[in-house]
Design brief:
Blueprint: E1 3-9, H1 13-25, E2 35-40, H2 46-54, H3 59-62, E3 66-71, H4 78-88, E4 93-97, E5 101-103, H5 108-117, E6 124-129, E7 135-137, E8 141-144, E9 147-149, E10 170-172, E11 179-183, H6 184-189, H7 202-212, E12 217-227, H8 240-257, H9 265-270, H10 273-276, E13 282-285, E14 296-299, H11 300-304
Parallel strand pairs: 1-2, 1-4, 2-3, 6-12
Antiparallel strand pairs: 4-11, 5-12, 6-7, 6-11, 8-9, 10-12, 13-14
Amino acid sequence: MSVSIIIPTRNQDRILDRAITSIADSAASAIDGLEVIIISNQSDEIDSQHYLAGLPSLVKSLGIDRLRVIDFDHAFNFSAMNNAAVELSRGDVLCFLNNDVEIITSDWLDQLVTEVSHAQTGCAGALLYYPNDTVQHAGVIVGMDTIAAHPYVGMPRAEVPTHPYFQARRVCTAVTGACLAIQRSLFERVGGFDTALAVAFNDIDLCLKTSQAGYPSVWVPSVELYHHESLSRGKGIKTAEAKKRHRDEIRFMQSKWGPQVLDDPYWRASHRADEVANDQHVQLVKRRWRSPRSVYYQHKDLINNG
């Protein structure tokens, strides 16, 4: 299968270069027909413009069959940017990456392509770490923190190899769009990313759509990346406009999906309270879920630190 890696970016040429270099240094560069598409969202810094202009000429040295830079001269909209790139892409498999990721596992792309090649798999995602070697993404749980959040955030990477949760691939409700693979035909069948979700929840919405079509998401812990989260756009919801947009996107998801974003059947089915009661790495924490029976687990150090 041919593969298109799609990376949105704005300025931050050093961050993007780290991502591209890590792709080239991995076994992904050996995949026949590998295509990398960079979507530049109004990059206006001179150094970044020069870097982007020179990227296509580096194709041979990077070992990538095809590399394109596309300009997206509109207000930031993650969904619209990626949809535009898909229309210009060639791959049978699409792999969406943030510009602030860094590959750890050499055969990461082979594993994700194999995963989405299975007849009943929708989206496939990876195990992501913060730069301080703690867990950032190990699948997504819906029904938590208004719409969704990640389990095991903050767990030290050194503890991952012996923790039961991380020993096998898991069917889950959603995976993060920071590293998400999907077959092109399925992406197009479900209508791609919903452009009403410009910033948040677009990846969750996509996973819910594929699951609704009969293709649930799978999280693959043997695929590891670093995620230098939100470096390109800045972390947090800071302005009044951003806060309003976030509230609007929450309401949109609640209106669109109703009960499906109130509780997580995959998490609930695979994690019984009595199984984790004696787990030294996990605590049972009551939250204001929409379902009063719902609970979730996070790493104890994160809880103790507030």
